[in-house]
């Protein structure tokens, strides 16, 4: 029987954080043994917000190498840059014309991001790319006809939109796109900021102390954990009223591969200083390990990425042609 396929991507904006590892990369790595696995760096999605071209170039390469450092095995996973497979651009248009402005403007991510930008100029300052972000993502998923899409909780809505559009295309044009399922990890799908645990840890946070970056000096990362904002109660247990403590327990549980309940049990008689020290050491050990591997592969990224793109393009082209034929853009025999 053919293996089921996963597809996932990560946007090439900013430096990757521990939240990206726990919420996304870790799961992608787990799946590669069981699934046929396609993973890409979403550099086209990165263009939806203002970018510095030199930074983008550097980020792309770092992210590629970090994926390998975090356990992506190129013998098992096809790892590539989205913009190397030009089929993504055309697919985006074919999806766009099958979507409504209502659908796109209801997306939570669009509402949040556009509200932040909105000034007295209103719509004039909201980039169209923010609205179209999901159509590009729907296209990504359908190009590889994925069964499963591992993402963090904030991206679930975009995968749900993909399901609706796949169904729509199948009904209207008799295509046979799979209806993809999102995969959201139970623990760690929302790792919080170290400075304000009611906010998500985000690679776009301007406060560098709020996030652990995967390329942080491990010693610096340890210190960030030691300074993480918690609460004044002094007791360790899991509760939504204690987001700082819950966050530290989640980080530990994910990096040490033990359940959240077991982690709570382990720390329940300890104090906050002891908890932070152990979480800090766990983070330090993890960063030291992945950075060693990162140094080994960073100079080989261009070569690896071009091999990945060639392989990805074969499948992307096949699915793009399928839709082009169904829409009447190409003859069945072409
Ligand atoms: P982003 O950093 O927003 O481009 O997201 C890249 C991937 O990491 C997506 O699958 C996100 O859902 C996931 N992710 C981002 N921030 C977090 C977070 N704070 N906790 C868990 N997962 C996250
Ligand atoms: N939008 C995703 C993010 O959070 C990245 C992404 C782009 C993606 N295309 C995708 C994820 C397709 C899964 C499948 O960064």
Automatic annotation (TrEMBL):
Belongs to the class-I aminoacyl-tRNA synthetase family. Gene3D superfamilies: HUPs, Tyrosyl-Transfer RNA Synthetase. Keywords: Aminoacyl-tRNA synthetase, ATP-binding, Cytoplasm, Ligase, Nucleotide-binding, Protein biosynthesis. This is Tryptophan--tRNA ligase. It is found in: Cytoplasm. Its EC number is 6.1.1.2. One of its GO terms (biological process) is tryptophanyl-tRNA aminoacylation. Catalyzes the attachment of tryptophan to tRNA(Trp). It catalyses: tRNA(Trp) + L-tryptophan + ATP = L-tryptophyl-tRNA(Trp) + AMP + diphosphate + H(+). It is an enzyme of class 6 (ligase). One of its GO terms (molecular function) is tryptophan-tRNA ligase activity. It comes from Metamycoplasma auris. The keyword Transport does not apply. ATP binds at residues 11-13, 152-154, 191, 200-204. CDD domains: TrpRS_core (cd00806). A motif ('KMSKS' region) lies at residues 200-204. It comes from the Bacteria. L-tryptophan binds at residue 140. Its main location: cytoplasm. Homodimer. Pfam families: tRNA-synt_1b. The keyword Protein biosynthesis applies. InterPro entries: aa-tRNA-synth_Ic, Rossmann-like_a/b/a_fold, Trp-tRNA-ligase, Trp-tRNA-ligase_bac-type, Trp-tRNA_synthetase. One of its GO terms (cellular component) is cytosol. SUPFAM superfamilies: Nucleotidylyl transferase.
